[in-house]
Amino acid sequence: MEETYLLNVEGVKKKILHGGQGELPKFQDGSKITFHFQTLKDDFERTVIDDSREAGVPMEIIVGKMFKIEIWETLLSSMRTGEVAEFWCDAIHTGMYALVSKGMRRIAEGRDPLEGQKHRCGMGNMFDYHSTGYDDLDELQRTPQPLIFIMELFRVEEPSAYKRDTWAMSKEEKLAAVPVLHSEGNRLVLRKEFRQAAEKYQEAVICLRNLQAKEKPWEEGWLKLESLVTPLVLNYCQCQLELGEYYEVLEHTTELLQKHNDNAKAYFKRAKAHAAVWNEREAREDFLRVAHLDPAMAAAVKKELKLLGERMRKKHVEDRKRYQGLFQQPRG
Fold first, then answer.
1. Where in this chain does the record put each AIP/AIPL N-terminal FKBP-type PPIase domain (predicted)?
2. Extents of the domains making up the chain
3. What values do phi and psi take at 153, rounded to 5?
C-alpha cells in the first residue's frame, strides 16, 4: 500500500507504506507521541543517517512544545496508530536536523546532549561551532538538503494519560506539582527511603528553577520562588547526608549560603558534611556560626562539636599508630 499524498504544507510529500488503524488520533497540546523513525538522504543509495531502532528506544515528542524540527509534529499528526509512512521534506524544513541528530546521538551514547554548548539558542550554537563531532552531520550542516523520514506511529497519549516530565509542564502545572513532590519526599523520608526521597525533592527544585529562569533575580516573583526552593534543597541535602554523599552536600549548601548567608540549617548540614570528610576547621567554624545565628540550636551544636572532637582524637591515634608502623625498623 503506497499511496502518495501532498500534505497542505509546502515542500512535503507523504507516501503511506502501511496503513494504520482506527480514526486519526487527537493531537492536542501536551499529548505525547511515541514513534520510531529513520532518516535517509534523498540520493540514489538512500543513505541512512539515523535509525531509532538501532538505539532500541522509540522517540517521544510532546505536541506544542516546540520540538526543534517543527515539521515532525506536522508529519506525525497526519498519521494513524500503527501507520508507517515515508515523508519527503525539502531543505526549508531540514535545516536544524544536524543539531537535533547530534543531541539524539549523544543521548544514545550515554552522554550529555548539551555538552560543550554555550547558553544560547540552537541556531547560535550552530554558528559558534564548526563541527558537530560527526562527519555526516557536518556535511548536512554545511549543505542543507532534502531528507526522507520514515516514521512508524505507535501511540498518542492525552496529557492526563501519562506522567509528564517536568520540562513538559506549563507554569501552572509546575506550581501544582511542587507541593505534591514535597509531600511525597517527606513520606519517603519517614520510610527511610532516602534516595527516592532525594529524587522527589530534586524534581521539585527543577520545577521551581525553570520558573525562576523567567523572573528577574531578587525581584518579588524570583524571591517568592526562592522561598520555596530553599527548604527543598535543605531536605535534599539531609537525604544526601543519610546516603553518605558528603561532597554533594558541600556543593549544594555552599551554593545556598552564597545567596542566603544567614541560613543556620544550611550551615548545620554543611558542618556535618565537613566533619564527615575530616575537614575539622571548616566544620567547627560552621557549627559555631549556627550557634551564633540560632541560639535554639546551641544544644545540638554542642553535641556535634563533642562528637567531632572524639572522632578527630580517635583518628589522630589511628594515624600515629599507622605512621609508627611505617617507619618502625624490622628486627634482625
1. 27-154
2. 12-157, 171-319
3. -85, 125
How much is the pLDDT for 127? 41
- Identity (one letter) of the amino acid at 227? S
Q: Record the pTM.
A: 0.54
Amino acid at 28: Q
Higher pLDDT, 305 or 165: 305
- Give percent of the chain above pLDDT 90: 56
Fold of 12-157: Chitinase A; domain 3 (3.10.50)
Cα of first residue to Cα of last residue in the chain, in angstroms, is 92
Q: Which three cell numbers stand for residue 326?
A: 611505617
With b meaning 16 or more CB within 10 Å and e meaning fewer, what string describes 75-86?
Answer: bbbbbbeebbbb
pLDDT above 90 for 321: no
Residue with the three cell numbers 545567596? 259
171-319 fold: 1.25.40
pLDDT of residue 158: 83
| Separation between Cα atoms, residue 194 and residue 185, nearest integer Å | 8
